[in-house]
Amino acid sequence: MRNVLFGYSPDPQFDRKEAIRLLRLALSVDGDNPGTLATAALISAFMVGDCESEIEMADRAVALNPNSYSAWTNRGWVYNVAGLPEEAVRSFERAIRMSPVDPGLHLTLVGMGVALIELGRFDEANRRREESPTSEPRCSGTLPLSRIRFRPSRT
Predict the structure, then answer these.
(1) Which residues contact 55 (CB under 8 A, 6 or more apart)?
(2) Nearest to 109 by CA among 81, 84, 139, 83
(3) Each residue of 95-124: pLDDT tens digit?
(4) N or C: which end of the chain has fewer CB within 10 A?
């Protein structure tokens, strides 16, 4: 999924289809596992775009395991993609409260920033940007965010 999203895939069409095939396979093997549901919801949100079923999977994942940091983070991203940033913020906030020093925190904070920008809450987006761990080597695509100050567009 990330290769397609970040433009690294030599054949994005194939990789997108393969991601969808694998998420369906995972659901057929272990569709009641909250981790499987959360990951499938996230992949489907970016690769398929059927917001209703993705929201259903993400909500089911957190209902099955309300203490899962990754389920709440993935739910936030699903709601972001679905165009529901207020609910995305609630999901990201819950994930951060549950695991404030999680190794994947940078992805949660980026998602939070995206949702806050969508809501026009630029000052809060700046505060979250400042909280983001900029030394995360696996997140080089988001490192420039540490140098950006979000502000309303001038229209």
Answers:
(1) 41, 78, 79, 82, 84
(2) 139
(3) 999 999 999 898 899 899 999 999 999 999
(4) C
